[in-house]
Specification:
Distance between the termini of chain A: 22 Å
CATH topology of chain A: Arc Repressor Mutant, subunit A
CATH superfamily of chain A: Winged helix-like DNA-binding domain superfamily/Winged helix DNA-binding domain
Mean pLDDT of chain A: 94
Strand content of chain A: 5-15%
CATH architecture of chain A: Orthogonal Bundle
Number of domains of chain A: 1
Strand order of the largest sheet of chain A: 1-3-2
Low-confidence stretches of chain A: none
Oligomer: homodimer
Number of strands of chain A: 3
Radius of gyration of chain A: 18 Å
Shape of chain A: globular
Largest interface: A-B, 63 and 63 residues
Chain lengths: 144, 144
Amino acid sequence: MDHSCASKAQIAYILRELHYQISPKFERCTGISQSRLELLQHLYDAEEISQTTLQKVVHIDNAAVTRHLKQLEASGMVNRRKNPQDNRVTLVSLTEQGRSKILSYRKERDQFVTNLLQGFTEKELPVLVDMLQRMQQNAEQIEG
Amino acid sequence: MDHSCASKAQIAYILRELHYQISPKFERCTGISQSRLELLQHLYDAEEISQTTLQKVVHIDNAAVTRHLKQLEASGMVNRRKNPQDNRVTLVSLTEQGRSKILSYRKERDQFVTNLLQGFTEKELPVLVDMLQRMQQNAEQIEG
DNA sequence: CCTCAATGTTTGATACGTCAAACAATATAA
DNA sequence: TTATATTGTTTGACGTATCAAACATTGAGG
């Protein structure tokens, strides 16, 4: 409520605008959506994990995760199977095809992000990451 | 493509995640979506402007702007009329009701953003705004 | 054992973006 | 002035997120 609220409010606006500016361009440049690539990226690191675990790290709704993974399965990028120890949970893993394809996606992504961050110095990047993460933590607290 | 790409890629991920964390909470806290409030906010400042002008400043697709404004008109927040000098353009303005309602929305928004930026110092805010705006400018350049 | 709660996943309804194509209305130029 | 390009807006098809409700499946307590 203090005098700096105008600039604070601006931040919320810019974040929204930035997302919608980036999102379609990211997909056109890399050939895959940010969400999908993020899912694949975590599978790449994790071998085989449950959907819920995956859902929590990518901050996407369960329903959306289910739909993404179904389509990624249909396109041969991931495998899904029930956990024999607990038939409620679905375990997901990358296929060989997925594992190899992700490498080229990553290249495109890196190029894209490099463009996005043109003019940023090496010192600025960690500052930015830190601020964004702090906002994320704050966001998690809001409205239980 | 250099060694800092991991941290760069992280930024793209966080931006996406942050948007989806914020967006529903913003609406629940304030009673209006970010996009709508941003549209109203600009109308508040601008008196009467054309849809296209408005669309350009908020970085939302024309189609989405049309739909938002139609609904805001239906709910009595804005007026729309054809420009008599050029019947192609639609001029939009706030109604009295809209003008008064926006004040309470703003209060909620400011509270929300204050929570989002908890722990940020006065010096950090302009740094953050600057970085976000630079990303926006870079994003505009990508893939003409 | 057999409810009943908890956990994981899925489905359905809704909202809001994008793009492309359709429709004006206006400018331009032959 | 009449065909053609340009500009502003709208509509339709689609993707992807949210929430809430429906379905398993498993665990725990009487």
